[in-house]
Amino acid sequence: MSTAPIRAVLADDERLMREQLRSRLTEVWPELDIVAEAKNGLEAVELTKEHKPDLVFLDIRMPGLTGVDAARQIAQLPEDDDWLVPEIVFITAYDQYAVEAFEQGVADYVLKPAERERLQLTVARIKKRLAQREGKESVETSSAPLQQLLHKLSAQVSGGGKPSYLQWIQATVGQAIQMIPVEEVLFFISDEKYTRVQTAKVEALIRKPIKELVDELDPQVFWQIHRSTLVNARAIDGITRDFRGRQLVGVRGLAEKLEVSRSYTHLFKGM
Question: Which pLDDT does position 158 carry in this prediction?
Answer without folding.
Answer: 62
